[in-house]
């Protein structure tokens, strides 16, 4: 073989090596996290516009470009229906590339999977962070005979089934929380479901039901104007305006009942991308504009990282399953 051929073959070999290295690098860039995100991200909100979950999502999306690598943006996409399960199902089916994320809540994540009507379970997602939690409160009309929790509890114990209460719907967080309270206290109440917090409250104010068990953000205007009286808060915290109202934990009743909202992604999203999303949204959660927006709806940022948020989801899933089993709603 002459010298010219040797040089030619050596050049060809070098070209092949460079080409293979380039292909490897290109594959790493397109399938890895080096440039993530290099295009806008879609955030699925499994409810209609205007609710707590949607407002929280839009508040975060409004500032996220300041904290996301490459200044990327997040577009909020509402996919409502099925008590939140349609949107969460779409998140479950999404590609695990980090470009489809979702705002998830306790109902569709930890209650609905027990009903046998959805294909997903909590372990099919990776929690990114919790962003807000809202306690629930039992309210009655201001002229009702129950002045406080103890009077109410004495009454419902002595009159099984007589006290009827409204919620936002069957099988959602408020309903399951009240069922859990009955299990813990040995009482029997009558549930009357409505399609949302506002009609549930109107039914109580109109005398169609004795009480309404709704989120504090929904009840606060009626509590503050004196038309409704709060009897207890079910949650892990309570708003300052309800500082004199007992939490269930104050009464040694082990029921939490927060309606939490957080960000999750499909389970096959790489951990490196989860970290990027977590760090970006944590900073956005602390942004003054987001804090102010949350305050306007009577909520406050409640941060939990991936591990703590996962523990909350798992605990609620187990507890809700036990309650649903006890009341015959678990499939």
Automatic annotation (TrEMBL):
UniProt keywords, alphabetically: Signal
UniProt KW Signal keyword: yes
Signal peptide: 1-26
Domain of life, source organism: Bacteria
Pfam family, one: TctC
InterPro entries associated with the record: BUG (IPR005064), Bug_dom1 (IPR042100)
PROSITE patterns, A to Z: PROKAR_LIPOPROTEIN (PS51257)
The family this protein is said to belong to: Belongs to the UPF0065 (bug) family.
Protein name in the entry: Tripartite tricarboxylate transporter substrate binding protein
Organism the protein comes from: Brevibacillus nitrificans
């Amino acid at each position: 073989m002459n010298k010219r051929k040797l040089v030619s073959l050596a050049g060809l070999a070098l070209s092949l090596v460079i080409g293979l290295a380039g292909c490897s690098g290109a594959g790493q860039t397109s399938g890895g996290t080096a440039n993530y995100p290099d295009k806008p991200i879609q955030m699925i909100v499994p409810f209609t516009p205007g609710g707590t979950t949607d407002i929280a999502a839009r508040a975060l999306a409004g500032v996220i470009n300041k904290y996301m690598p490459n200044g990327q943006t997040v577009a909020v996409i509402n996919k409502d229906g099925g008590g939140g399960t349609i949107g969460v199902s779409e998140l479950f089916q999404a590609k695990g590339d980090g470009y489809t994320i979702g705002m998830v809540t306790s109902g569709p994540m930890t209650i609905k999977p027990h009903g046998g009507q959805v294909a997903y379970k909590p372990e099919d997602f990776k929690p990114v962070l919790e962003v807000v939690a809202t306690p629930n409160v039992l309210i009655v009309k201001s002229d009702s005979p129950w002045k406080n929790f103890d009077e109410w509890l004495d009454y419902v114990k002595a009159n099984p089934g007589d006290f009827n209460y409204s919620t936002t719907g069957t099988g959602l967080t408020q309903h399951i929380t009240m069922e859990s309270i009955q299990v813990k206290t040995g009482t029997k109440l009558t549930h009357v479901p409505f399609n949302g917090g506002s009609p549930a409250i109107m039914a109580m104010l109109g005398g169609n039901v004795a009480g309404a068990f709704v989120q504090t953000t929904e009840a606060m205007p009626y509590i503050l104007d004196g038309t409704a009286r709060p009897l207890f808060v079910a949650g892990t915290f309570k708003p300052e305006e309800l500082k004199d109202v007992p939490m269930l934990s104050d009464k040694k009743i082990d029921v939490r009942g927060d309606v939490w909202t957080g960000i999750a992604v499909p389970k096959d999203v790489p951990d490196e991308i989860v970290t990027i999303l977590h760090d970006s949204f944590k900073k956005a959660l602390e942004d003054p504009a987001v804090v102010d927006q949350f305050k306007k709806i009577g909520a406050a940022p409640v941060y939990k990282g991936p591990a703590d948020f996962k523990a909350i989801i798992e605990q609620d899933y187990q507890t809700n399953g036990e309650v649903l089993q006890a009341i015959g709603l678990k499939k």
